[in-house]
Amino acid sequence: MQLTSITVMLKVSLFCRPQQLPQGDVSLVAEAGRLADQAGLYAMHFGEHLLMGERPDRYPFGAFEHDPLTPWLDPLIALASVAAVTERLRLSTGVLLGPLRSGVLLAKQLASLDVLSHGRVEPGIGVGWQPEEYEASGIAWSDRYRLLDLTLRSCRQLWAEQPTTLPSESGELDRVVALPRPVQERIPVLLGLRPTPRNIARIVEYADGWCPVRLSPTDLAAGVADLRAAFAAAGRDPDSLIVRTQAPLILDEDGRVDVERTMQIAGPSVAAGATILAVGPTAGCRDMADVASMIKRLAEIAERFDDRGGIA
């Protein structure tokens, strides 16, 4: 099904959980990306789990909606397949588990994807919520924030001028070279962390934006205000702050996403300071024509959003 190109005013990222595509066929993720690209959506992203433990009840953001036997694609490999069939769509994650990859590996993966996509990488990075994923990787759960800092610092160094000095667990490595460098002068990194003072400092030091999960518009506005103030205090432009927030999904009687009502409910989050709205309209779709129809409707509504979160 061919879609006409649409100029979208509100930046919308298609939160496409591959396992929620028709018949649970995760291989359709590239086709979903192609449809989002044709419709003019800003980005596509999905999350990561290396494995699932036995305690989904520990999910800190409400009920965890996925069966433990749900398949989870590696997000960067999946995004590479999306990059091959798209031209403008930004390639993101929501979130990639940063501490489970070494900084040199993650820097290489994201730089490679940026080169192959001609500069379209915009990763969301966090620490996750399952200790089992850390234990399986031979990493202490208690080390996750220290390793996140090391990974992010390494990425920034390896994406800059070469040769460079690389921080490592055993000290610093001088005059190392890691090529290719990204196409983008600065890969915009979003951090999916709670807005504590320490995490706000992390975002200011290493990142370009914030991608929180399931915050109320009031809490979102408070976090945005704190981040803008921290950006200004650090000499960074507060208006450059990227804020991606997820729209709560409203389902119709057939179990499919009601795009109109979902976007209406998301309005207050846009007014609270979100610059990118994450919407996942593929749940309940019967086939890819249904997915295409939902994506097209999403783009049409996004075009009518104003800067106060209202729909014209």
Describe the model.
The chain has a single domain, classed as Luciferase-like domain (TIM Barrel). It has helices at 29-39, 75-83, 103-116, 131-136, 144-158, 197-206, 217-233, 259-271, 288-302; strands at 11-15, 43-46, 90-93, 96-97, 124-126, 164-168, 171-176, 190-191, 209-210, 242-246, 276-279. It contains nine helices and eleven strands. The protein is an alpha/beta fold and 312 residues long. Helix 1 runs parallel beside helix 9 (288-302) and helix 7 (217-233) crosses helix 8.
Q: Can you count the helices? A: 9
Elements, N to C (H/E): EHEHEEHEHHEEEHEHEHEH
Rg on CA atoms, Å: 19 Å
Beta-strand residue fraction? 5-15%
Q: Can you tell me the CATH superfamily? A: Luciferase-like domain
Q: Unreliable runs, pLDDT <50, ≥5 residues?
A: 1-8
The CATH class label is: Alpha Beta
Structural class: alpha/beta
**Total domains:** 1
What composes the largest sheet? 9 strands, parallel
Q: Output mean pLDDT.
A: 92
State the share of residues found in helices, binned by percent.
25-40%
